[in-house]
Write a structure and sequence with these properties.
The protein is of the alpha/beta class. The chain is 45% helix and 18% strand. The protein contains 18 helices and 13 strands. The two termini are 36 Å apart.
Length: 411
């Protein structure tokens, strides 16, 4: 069963141009499936060669005998798709050679962005478009679970009954996440097994084989520590103690977790360095199912539910090309997310439940300091509007934030 991905529309724009298309993302998030679906639509018009660097023969030729590789896989084809490109050494330099010497469209995918780092990109500047694919967004999750709800979800104009139905799906989504194989699993037990396999494969193949990291147990300790701190300021010294890693290694491992699409560090919004904290980021996971599997907790009733809703909103914003930041002052006034879009500053606060139009002192403080035109406060069901000076504050359910945000920005 193929679930259409939002990223398809963006990639299609560049299928007919010369530049290399690179799709990176977490292992098992659907990169290969997405690309094969796109190529399937071209197979009657184009000569296409598809290989994977899981194939030792193809990988060896690419690394050691590029001329033979080109004769076998590149020559006389219109498109070449190379999967698992992260296994190749010096891939950037070799891809540049193919790009410069053959009239062929190159599409690559990989589960780590490490091979598309500064070292590789210096060879591919002006020759490559890089796209990041994440596990399913909530909209893509709905397409897999109940497609009839998607048109309502996209319009964001529905009442309490539909909100309640969407929240039922949201409850499953924040517990088990959006990895395609997990979403399509038949029951809870199968979902848990699939998530454990994803984690084991990540540690074995991504960490040991690709990145050559021998002390993967320390990385696992770090991931577990971070799993218990979603939405919190990163304390590097504490993480160093918990993971048995040195302070520099903690920062290095953070880099690995970001490049392999497991965690993301959210930076502070800092217009005034004298009064706002500017040093430590916050941490969130791209997929809550991965996170919950790490701590082996799939309970519905739990003490960390507030952090999970925060993490859900963060990942949805990132998957939809927003760059959220947080705001926190030395006096501990704090707003969960700040967006800077179209010359506007938009504060977003996340609550679990809310029943009236009350603003926190921190939210009011932000409004007084920055005078935004709009702000959003999200909870499970409550919906209302409040005018505070020149700012309209929208109280909306979590499931409506993206649509209402886009409506506001595109008004």
């Amino acid at each position: 069963m193929y679930i259409p991905r939002d990223l398809e529309k963006e990639i299609k724009k560049y299928l007919s141009v010369k530049e290399i298309i690179a799709v990176t993302g977490a292992r098992q998030c659907g990169k290969t499936t997405l690309i094969l679906n796109l190529l399937k639509q071209l197979k009657d018009k184009k000569s296409i060669k598809m290989i994977s660097f899981d194939d030792i023969k193809a990988l060896s030729l690419f690394e050691n005998d590029l001329d033979s590789f080109c004769q076998l896989y590149v020559k006389n084809n219109d498109i070449i798709f190379i999967d698992e490109v992260q296994y190749a050494k010096e891939s950037g330099k070799k891809l540049k050679y193919i790009y410069d010497n053959f009239p062929i469209k190159i599409i690559i995918s990989g589960s780590s962005s490490s091979e598309l780092s500064i070292q590789s990109l210096k060879y591919l500047v002006g020759r490559i478009f890089i796209f990041s694919l994440y596990p399913f967004s909530f909209k893509e999750f709905l397409l897999a679970q109940n497609p009839s709800l998607v048109p309502l979800y996209e319009k964001a104009r529905y009442g309490v009954e539909i909100t309640t139905e969407l929240n039922r799906y949201l409850e499953e989504f924040i517990l088990f996440g959006g990895y395609p194989r997990v979403v399509l699993a038949k029951n809870k037990e199968e979902k848990i097994i699939v998530l454990r396999n994803i984690i084991n494969t990540y540690l074995l193949r991504e960490i040991k084989e690709v990145l050559g990291l021998k002390e993967d147990f320390k990385l696992l300790k770090l991931i577990k520590s971070l799993s218990l701190q979603i939405g919190n300021l990163v304390n590097y010294n504490e993480l160093s103690s918990l993971s048995e890693l040195s302070y520099p290694d903690v920062k290095n491992y953070f880099n690995i977790l970001e490049k392999t699409f497991i965690c993301s560090l959210m930076l502070p919004f800092k217009s005034n360095k004298r009064t706002e904290l500017v040093k430590n980021p916050k941490v969130y996971f791209y997929d809550l199912g991965f996170r919950n599997s790490i701590i082996d907790n799939f309970s519905v009733e739990r003490v960390d539910i507030g952090g999970m809703y925060e993490n859900f909103i963060f990942s949805e914003l990132v998957k939809n090309n927003f760059t959220p930041k947080y705001w926190r002052t030395k006096s501990k006034a704090e707003v969960d997310f700040i967006l800077e879009e179209k010359e506007e500053i938009i504060p977003i606060e996340i609550k679990v439940n809310l029943s009236e139009t009350n603003l926190t002192r921190s939210f009011q403080s932000f409004l007084e300091k920055y005078h935004p035109s709009a702000g959003f406060i999200c909870s499970s069901h409550f919906e209302n509007e409040l005018k505070v000076s020149h700012c309209k504050v929208y109280f909306i359910p979590h499931v409506k934030l993206l649509q209402r945000l886009n409506l506001y920005l595109n008004k």
